[in-house]
Amino acid sequence: MREAATLLLAGLCFGASQQIVVRELVSLLYGEEVVLLVVSAAALAAASLGYQLGGRLSPRALARLLLACGALLLLSPALPRFAVAGLCLLRGDSGPELLLVLAVLTFAAAAPFTAIVPALLDRHDEPADRLAALRRGYTAELLGFGLGSAAALALGSAPGLRFAVLAAALVGLVHAAIGRPLVTVACTIAAAIACATHLPLSRLGADLVYRHKHQIAGAEVVWSVDSPYQRVEVVTAPGRGRMLYLDGLRDLDDRDLGTLNHYLARAPAGLVRPARALLVGNGTLSMVPELSAMSDHLTTVEIDAAVVDAGARFFTPGEPLARLANWRLVLADGKQFLAATDERFDLIAVDLPSPLTLGEAYLHTREFYALCRARLRPGGVLAVQLSGRLGAPTRTPARLVASLRAEFPAVVVVDSESAERAFAYASDALPFTLDALRAAAAPGERGLQLVADEELERKIAGAAPLTLDDLDLVLRRGAERLRERYF
């Protein structure tokens, strides 16, 4: 029973610490697909190393490893945040030494817990006893891992409570594995102090990361939660207003919203006059008030409730939205919603992050655009923001336009200097002229280029569409950005 309890608690600590630490490291290193792969590989390597160590370390050495790594986890996430901010401050920029933080933290979050199974097996000499112990122990560990992971995911919006669960599990594991009352008492006191100081130290560490790693003077994190999909943070800074970050990557700045919303929603809606409109993404809901006023009915589809919550709290007041009779919010994956719905729309506006992960990239593929086209009414328009200005055929904007051109007969690109990005409008037959589109430019637009027909074909010559079988852009861009930041 003691072995089973020890392994159950070890699995619980392993599952909870993995969820917390992986999300922390992904956010610190910026959550592109390549970073997700690197962090996941490091976590698996640390778990494998723990299994190797368990059969080789003496009971005393294993107890010391557990206590040392438990102490590191009680100092997380404040410790890695302070370490990353301090290294960036000393260096003046990011460097490869930040990857050492990844290695140390992934080891602490996995190795001592996976080492316990082989260590306990060594207590059994008979093969039949070892096999029975392995079955019982591994079952208990897997059950604990599931419980710990589920608890960490469910409590992502309550980081203090989530940390308290991990701290309590660590104390329980130390008591079950070591069995020395004085050690248990000392660990309980340390865990209580860690829980009491967790939130203020974590907030200070987050502020310092944005000030020194992101290099935003006076940055302050005013809201941070871990959803099942990503870390959602709202950051403020003098002269910058509010900014939304997803897994450490800036999604938007509230100074950008006016121009972004104009070209993605206001301009096409003014030209199309949609009876039914659909927003895919736009979790801040900033387009909803105006677009609902310009259409008979508006549907917003957003996968992450935490982003919607951040939008209602900091970017678009939730109370006026609740009074909109012609708007509905659907919490769902955009592609699944479009595949399942029988509705047809006059305007579909896609406001999504740049394709830096495979999940996001799917919503920028030729297949997704074909699905959008199938849900448009005759004369309907798809509006897409291209995550940058139209440039080289190997870069994201050109490849997204190539994906649109592969599915739509008519595509026009609006390249806005004020928005510092381009937008594309696609249709079977665009229901407006280029002159009408030029006349719909944002107030104060510094420079606007409209690119269509032969000129557009020349601009995207050589650009390969993004497809489900060709998402090389995601890994290539992620590898480039990882190399530029840290090497």
TrEMBL record:
<keyword id="KW-1133">Transmembrane helix</keyword>
<feature type="transmembrane region" description="Helical">
    <location>
        <begin position="61"/>
        <end position="79"/>
    </location>
</feature>
<protein>
    <recommendedName>
        <fullName>Polyamine aminopropyltransferase</fullName>
        <ecNumber>2.5.1.16</ecNumber>
    </recommendedName>
</protein>
<comment type="subunit">
    <text>Homodimer or homotetramer.</text>
</comment>
<keyword id="KW-0812">Transmembrane</keyword>
<feature type="transmembrane region" description="Helical">
    <location>
        <begin position="142"/>
        <end position="170"/>
    </location>
</feature>
<keyword id="KW-0620">Polyamine biosynthesis</keyword>
<feature type="binding site">
    <location>
        <begin position="333"/>
        <end position="334"/>
    </location>
    <ligand>
        <name>S-methyl-5'-thioadenosine</name>
    </ligand>
</feature>
<keyword id="KW-0808">Transferase</keyword>
<dbReference type="InterPro" id="IPR037163">
    <property type="entry name" value="Spermidine_synt_N_sf"/>
</dbReference>
<feature type="transmembrane region" description="Helical">
    <location>
        <begin position="99"/>
        <end position="121"/>
    </location>
</feature>
<feature type="transmembrane region" description="Helical">
    <location>
        <begin position="34"/>
        <end position="54"/>
    </location>
</feature>
<feature type="binding site">
    <location>
        <position position="230"/>
    </location>
    <ligand>
        <name>S-methyl-5'-thioadenosine</name>
    </ligand>
</feature>
<keyword id="KW-0745">Spermidine biosynthesis</keyword>
<dbReference type="InterPro" id="IPR001045">
    <property type="entry name" value="Spermi_synthase"/>
</dbReference>
<feature type="domain" description="PABS">
    <location>
        <begin position="198"/>
        <end position="428"/>
    </location>
</feature>
<comment type="similarity">
    <text>Belongs to the spermidine/spermine synthase family.</text>
</comment>
<feature type="binding site">
    <location>
        <position position="262"/>
    </location>
    <ligand>
        <name>spermidine</name>
    </ligand>
</feature>
<comment type="function">
    <text>Catalyzes the irreversible transfer of a propylamine group from the amino donor S-adenosylmethioninamine (decarboxy-AdoMet) to putrescine (1,4-diaminobutane) to yield spermidine.</text>
</comment>
<dbReference type="InterPro" id="IPR030374">
    <property type="entry name" value="PABS"/>
</dbReference>
<dbReference type="InterPro" id="IPR029063">
    <property type="entry name" value="SAM-dependent_MTases_sf"/>
</dbReference>
<feature type="active site" description="Proton acceptor">
    <location>
        <position position="351"/>
    </location>
</feature>
<comment type="pathway">
    <text>Amine and polyamine biosynthesis; spermidine biosynthesis; spermidine from putrescine: step 1/1.</text>
</comment>
<keyword id="KW-1003">Cell membrane</keyword>
<feature type="binding site">
    <location>
        <position position="302"/>
    </location>
    <ligand>
        <name>S-methyl-5'-thioadenosine</name>
    </ligand>
</feature>
<dbReference type="Pfam" id="PF01564">
    <property type="entry name" value="Spermine_synth"/>
</dbReference>
<keyword id="KW-0472">Membrane</keyword>
